[in-house]
Design a protein that fits this description.
homodimer; alpha+beta; Aldehyde Ferredoxin Oxidoreductase,  A, domain 1; Aldehyde Ferredoxin Oxidoreductase Protein, subunit A, domain 3; 3 domains; 6-stranded mixed beta sheet; 25 helices
Chain lengths: ~600, ~600
Amino acid sequence: MTIAMNNNILKIDLDSEKFVEEALDDEIFEKYLGGRGLGVKILCDSLSKGTNALSKENPLIFSIGPVTGSAVPTSGRFSLVTKSPLTNTIFHSNSGGFWGPYFKRTGYDCLLITGKLSDVGYIVINDYDNIEIKSAEDLWGLRTTETVEKIQSLEGKISQVLCIGPAGENLVKISAIMNQAHRAFGRGGVGAVMGSKNLKAIVIKPGKKDFPINDKDHLKKLRIVAIDKIRVVPVTSQGLALFGTAALVKVINQFGMFPVKNFQSAYTDSEKIDSISGERLRKEFLEKNEGCYNCIIRCGRFTNTGEKSGKGPEYESLWSLGPSTGTFDLKIITHANYLCNDLGLDTISTGSTIACAMELQQKGLIKDNNLKFGNKDKLYEIIESIALKKGIGTELAEGSLKFSQKYNAESYAMQVKGMELPAYDPRGAFGHALNYAVSSRGACHLTGFLVALEILGSPKKIDRFSVRGKSDLLFLKQNQSAVEDSLIVCKFVGYALGFEFQARFLSTISDKKISITDLITIGERIYNLERLFNVREGFSRKDDTLPKRFLETPLNEGPSKNRVVPLEDLLNEYYNVRHWDENGIPTDELLEKLSLKRLI
Amino acid sequence: MTIAMNNNILKIDLDSEKFVEEALDDEIFEKYLGGRGLGVKILCDSLSKGTNALSKENPLIFSIGPVTGSAVPTSGRFSLVTKSPLTNTIFHSNSGGFWGPYFKRTGYDCLLITGKLSDVGYIVINDYDNIEIKSAEDLWGLRTTETVEKIQSLEGKISQVLCIGPAGENLVKISAIMNQAHRAFGRGGVGAVMGSKNLKAIVIKPGKKDFPINDKDHLKKLRIVAIDKIRVVPVTSQGLALFGTAALVKVINQFGMFPVKNFQSAYTDSEKIDSISGERLRKEFLEKNEGCYNCIIRCGRFTNTGEKSGKGPEYESLWSLGPSTGTFDLKIITHANYLCNDLGLDTISTGSTIACAMELQQKGLIKDNNLKFGNKDKLYEIIESIALKKGIGTELAEGSLKFSQKYNAESYAMQVKGMELPAYDPRGAFGHALNYAVSSRGACHLTGFLVALEILGSPKKIDRFSVRGKSDLLFLKQNQSAVEDSLIVCKFVGYALGFEFQARFLSTISDKKISITDLITIGERIYNLERLFNVREGFSRKDDTLPKRFLETPLNEGPSKNRVVPLEDLLNEYYNVRHWDENGIPTDELLEKLSLKRLI
């Protein structure tokens, strides 16, 4: 099958500082597409049960997909799969920009890194079969902005740089891998996996290799159709460019789902909310927009507060560093976001772990007065202490679950499987809540974003408080997301293009007619293989849960008040739809249908 | 404004056999677009009150629109406006094929024909300023197929021919003008208007003149987007090509709206309905599809019954010549359809007038045993007698209203303002019923096809039996139809392209940004100008009605049983929405808003 891939994996062993290239069979693309699917398959095939996520054996697997670097809109994304030191689950993440398309043109589909450098270093992929490992002695300890600058001065302005900041170096469990210093493989502590390998950065220069597209003429036409749709739909043509993801601040608050002070409330009066809205961000701080490779949505934003400049914040970061910690000062939030990026910290988990600590302080379980809700003056200091593992930062660096357990106060950690919840109170959207509980990477908003249907009404508004039918929709959304992450395209394009467009694009790029149903099945396969990984690691129904707060304590004001998440009902229906047994384990019949085997 | 028009009208006076060209101002296009709007405006400006439709003074006005002959899909249509001898209302009609695009390229937007030839003749438009009037001595009396053949042998195979058959020559009030012998300006007796001018045919050869398109590149892209939509939507990509309009037979019957025996019932058992369905037509008679200029839908069909071959039948013709007269024999219906085309008869009014006569026979009001429901052996003979005005045909040639009045049996004539109802029982869809009552050209399914919403669910299914809200939808649909007829595009494309596409196309072709709202207002202007014409002729609320049957006698079987049309309620709401007074006359405020003046 022509599927616009290179059929080639680049394996770098940091122990020996050697690399090899290995062929990939068409079959793996037919079954897993690329990106997340490819990474998950390779990780499951290569990692033994119970491997420490920060050991040499845990690989970093970067991969691209069949549409990457093509004329398909938003085809600039690439994927990372590894085992997470925060959740101990399988972990996938993806990022935009230009690194992925550059990598594809060097002639590889996948970069698998194992081992550990004896001295700190960084990898340079100059082109096919031209890989170097260089010393990072002068880079170690640098923040991400400096790191990128320094590397680009050495390797050329055009180089694209993935790197970790001090947080990743210090094995902080909520550290990120930063992409050009402001995009992120944000969650799951993947920065620590890279840090554990003594690897500061992975640099790519644009390759020159072409890859096969089956029907270029038709792709051109389909692109025109797709671009037209993106230009016609208000969200993709205007909303995201004007206000970025921060447009959600007011929308989510309007539904009483915008969590404040570690999810103790979820509704804020309009004056206060206006002061941190995407609208205000645009009006006061926005300098210009930025887009990824082949994207006309251009949701990225260069901002300048008058004192400092940088990128973002995105909706989630704005929330976690702000209202979640009791702070409604947009300038401080924006600076805190710059700081997290620079230190290489996951903004969501950083803010939420701080918020957790603040609630412990509020409840009298810890004494540190710096950790008071709304204590914005100390925010930067606390963030730095996490990245540098100083003082209480050493404890916070483990994430909210481990932190709270130390104080016997686990119920104050707003996390699932160790990963902190993002900016949507689950008591206001039960399908979205269900996804938090069951997602293979912990409390995640990206793998089954039912907020789209329950709140935003895209493509159709559904009852956010109903149970019935949510599992069917989540099943589809999760499988669809797995496909989007494997092709790879940006999820935002889904607001303009129906999922059938991905089937049409893939049918054009490859020489095989691929239907929506084919894609949904591929997504189901990927999702279940992730589940099998987690099952082998000991995860089951007991872990598909939510913090007690969401199950027992209703909000007492706002449009989502008086509700708790009926999780057991949701789970029963969901397992049924997924063909998992009552303990959340995929059944034999399902595995046979998906041509999957249990992992040993 | 660049609006892709020639700004030029060709006026032919058949009395003097002279022609003149006159400039048209941009303003007329800005206010009326072209096609129907242009024709209506010109007719209203030029015709005196009470003019006999068959007098020399009544013009035939053929016109094209801004999209005609361009890259816009389905831009092959052109329009005719005249006063109808059947209804005595203003009358508009349009037809597809290639005549329109050829005409546009000769450098004219409009052809206005008045007067009467002293001897029978035909017009040849060779090119700009190269017009001939030739003798039709050898053509007069010929059927339309022969006429086209003979003219093409004289004028060249590439010539496009509008002509009348014996029916038009004989001033039959339900005669059509045929376009290449099988497409039709079907309704309103327009064939008789042409016949009254001693004009057998109007022949066009493809012009070479280009017309200005403001943004050709963008038009190209928009065309790709539009074609993609047409190819994606099942109705336009498959339904119409596979089964033609006859696909409606089973659908409309399923809703109990498929009239049988002059609307005495409207539901037929499935075996019988299958025998005359579009599916059977395809299976047994279809030879190949045919499309108009720049159309990929290709709903036209060459058929062959084994005995004869020709085109069609369309849904309406199949119904009127078949079940309406009590005949369910698809071969005979198909032959009858060929025959009507060849004689130049309106298939709908022909079948319905025969059905009316048959009900009179059933009720014992006339004695002619040939006119028995289901008497299929005599069908051809009756049809011929109408076209040739022989025997009872002389009476039938006046249409059902005049015919029934002769026997004091007007309530058996299924007509509004003299024009026969098409193939949808109004008791099953109240919005559609309302359009029959108010349409400016009598019982018409083309000017406000609410069956699309009430039955087909395109773009959305609505309650077919509700009154509330129907007027708002009809207001929009009527205005929109007036715009479609003025641009001109085919209405079928609306199943794939939202109306916003027409605004986008027009904004691309012209140098002016035109919104949907602008278009709806233009449509409203055209619709009201038609109303003003009719008001001057004496039409008012008393004429906005339906045959008593639909107001008083419910159907007694099928999915539409036990309903009558609540016409007064519908009308009250409709006049309100239209800003017409309680007598159906446009108010001063409305006219001012639309920059219209009452006609004197």
